[in-house]
Amino acid sequence: MSFLQIIRNKIKFIGYSDLLSDYEKKRLIIFNNLNFMAFCLAIVRYLYTVTNSPAYFTYQATLSNLALIILFVAIALLIHFRHYRIATISSFALAPLLLTISGILTNDSGTDMYLVLYMMLAFFFLHRLKNIAIAFTYCMIFFIFLRFKFNSHIDPVSTGAVALYYDILNYVSSLFMIFFTMYLIKFQVWNYEKSIREKKEIVRITNANLLAKTRKIEQQSLALQQKNIELTELNNVKVKLFSVISHDLRTSIYALKNIMGAFSKGSFSKEEMMSSLPGVNNEVDKSADLMENLLIWARNQLHESNIIFQHLELSRIVENTFKLFSKKAVEKGIELINNVPPDTTVYADADMMKAILRNLTANAIKFTNPGGNIKVSVENSKDNIKLIIQDNGVGISEEGITKIFGERYYTTLGTEKESGTGLGLMICRDFIASNNGDFDILSKQGEGSSFIITFPEFNEE
C-alpha cells in the first residue's frame, strides 16, 4: 500500500467506530472526505490570497480564508474524538458564514456556489426536517445576499486578471465539490446496496445450511426413533419369549417331568401309566405346537424370515392341515370340511401359508364345541381371492376382536379349558400382512366365527 493510500485511509476513517450503524459509517466516510477536500480548497484560496496581498486583498480577506482552514481542522478533531453532532452543527453554522465573509472581503463571485453545495448537503447529513429547513434557509440567505450584492461587481479594468482567476477558481472548485459530493454519495450507496446483497446471500446460504442440518437432524431423529421402535419390539419379543418359556412351556415340561419321575419311583403302576399316556401325549403335542409357533413367531419378529412368493394350491394345503388335526378333531367330535376347489391358487410364501392355516385351524378346534364343524372355503373375484375359515363355535366378543388386532397378546380358555399363549393369531396377523394380504374377523358370540384372509389375485410384485 502506497503512502498516499495510507494517508487517504486515515483521513477517511477519522472517528470510525464499530458501534455506529452501517448507514452512519457510510455517512461518516463521506463527511470526512468532503471535510478534507474543503480543507485542501481552503488552503488553495488562502495561498492565492496571501500571494496577491496587499495589492488586491486586505489582511481581513487573508484571515477569513485562514479561519476556514482552522474550522475544517477543528471539525476533523471533533470527529476524531467522536463528537459527531457538534462537528455537524459547527460545519453547517460556521462554514457558510465564513465563506460569505470571505466572498465579501475578496469581492469575487463563485463563492455562492459553495452555499448551494451546503444546501444540498443539509438533506444528506441532517436527519430532522426542522434542522434541514433551518440549514437550508440559513445558506439560502447568504446565497441571496452574495448574489444581490455582487451580481455585477466584476470590473476587469480595475481588478484585472486576479479577480477573474479567483472567480474561475471558485466556480471550478465549487462545481468539482458538487460533483465529488454526488459521486461519494452514489459510491457509498452502491457499496451499501452491495453489502446488503452480500449479507442477504450470506443469510440465504446460512439458512440453506441450517435447513440442511435441520433435515439431517430430522433424519437422524427419525432413524433414532425407528431404532427405538425396533429396540422396543425386540424387548417385547424378549419379554414374551421369557413369559412363554417360563410359564406355558415350563408347565408342559414340568408336567411330563412329574409323570416320568413318579413312574420311575414306582409311584405309578403300569396300568396307571398306560391310562395317563393320552394325557402325556397331549402335553407332548401341546409342547411341540408351542415350540413350533414360538420359533416361527420369534424368527418373524427378528426379521430373519425370508419370504419366497410362489403359486400355492390352497386345497392341498388345507387338506394337509386337516390331516395334522384329524386326531384332535375326532377326539372332540368336530367335522373338518374342505370346500376349496382343487384349482384354486394364491401367490404367497408356502411356509407362512401353512403356519396361517395350521394356527387358524387349531384355534377353531379349540373354540368349537363337540359335535360342531369347521369349514374352509374360498370366494373369487376379479382382483382378489378370499380364504374363509368358518366355525360354529362359541364366537368372539367385539372387545376380544379389538384385542386380537391390538398390540397386546390375547388368549382365552377353549371349550374344554384348553389354554393358549395368544401367539397363534399374532402369527396369522403378521404373516398375512407380510404376504400382502388383509385379515378380518366376523364373529357373534354363541354362533361361531369366520376368519377371512384376502389375497391379491396373482400378485407377483
Written description of the protein model:
The chain has 461 residues and is α+β, with helices and mostly antiparallel strands. The chain folds into two domains: 3-207, no CATH class; 308-461, Heat Shock Protein 90, CATH 3.30.565. Helix content is 69%, strand content 10%. The protein is built from 13 helices and seven strands. The chain has helices spanning 3-12, 22-51, 59-80, 84-106, 111-125, 129-149, 156-264, 270-301, 314-324, 326-332, 350-366, 398-404, 423-434; strands spanning 309-313, 335-338, 345-349, 373-380, 384-391, 438-444, 448-456. The strands form two sheets. The chain has a five-stranded mixed beta sheet with strand order 2-4-5-7-6, with helices on one face. It has a two-stranded antiparallel ribbon with strand order 1-3. Strand 6 (438-444) and strand 7 (448-456) form a beta hairpin. Helix 7 runs antiparallel to helix 8 (270-301) and helix 9 (314-324) packs across helix 11 (350-366). The chain starts with a helix and ends in a 5-residue tail after the last strand.
